[in-house]
Amino acid sequence: MATKIIGLDRLKKKLRRLPGAVEAEIRKAMEQTANEVVAMAKSLVPVSPGGGTLRDSIGWTYGDAPVGAMTLGKVKSGRASGDLVITVYAGGGDAFYARFVEFGTAPHLNKGRFAGSEHPGTAAQPFFYPSWRANRRKGRGRVSRAITKAAKRVAAGN
After folding, report:
1. NCBIfam families from the entry (predicted)?
2. CA-to-CA distance for 66 and 92, rounded, in angstroms?
3. Could you give the C-alpha distances from 55 to 44, 98, 121, 135, in angstroms and in order?
4. pTM listed for this prediction
5. What are the two backbone dihedrals, phi and then psi, of residue 61, each rounded to the nearest 5 degrees?
6. I want to staple 72 with a disulfide (CB 3.0 to 4.6 A). Which of 22, 80, 95, 128 is the partner?
7. pLDDT digits (tens, 9 = 90+) for 45-75
């Protein structure tokens, strides 16, 4: 004798809607976190008088960073597909020196145009990793809440 489950069709319909609803909520949460990381990094980066090239090069995008930019971190959700990976980046083009500012440089002999002169090295002036560490935990929580919110909304039939 076959057993009939009451409401099975409704349940299947809700389960089919769940991935799309969850992805939309995750996308919003990840974008908000990426915006916060970028804003904090831009506020922490040292700016020389009349400069701002490095500050203006900090941003985020879905997928891979623009050519020549230094990838500083990725925000992704669990087993995310390529379209749910946000890359936070800095540098590229005129701001090729992003990693030198973030991590500093050791004393060394110059090559090229200034060959033979000694560079004393520079102290690190971190701007990305402090902002990433300050926002990472909040971002994870935001994504978890987004998943729960989407699941509850789909279960309620909205």
Report:
1. phge_HK97_gp10
2. 8
3. 9, 9, 22, 18
4. 0.79
5. -155, 160
6. 128
7. 999 887 899 999 999 988 887 777 777 556 5
What is the distance between the alpha carbons of residues 98 and 91, in angstroms, rounded to a whole number?
A: 5
- Alpha helices in the chain, H assignment, sequence order: 8-44, 53-57, 98-103, 129-156
SS (H, E, C) 17-30: HHHHHHHHHHHHHH
∠ CA 123-74-67, nearest 5°, is 75
Structure tokens given for 17: 């809607």
Q: How many CA atoms lie within 13 A of 130 on its CB side?
A: 13
* CA dihedral over 67, 138, 77, 125, signed as positive or negative: positive
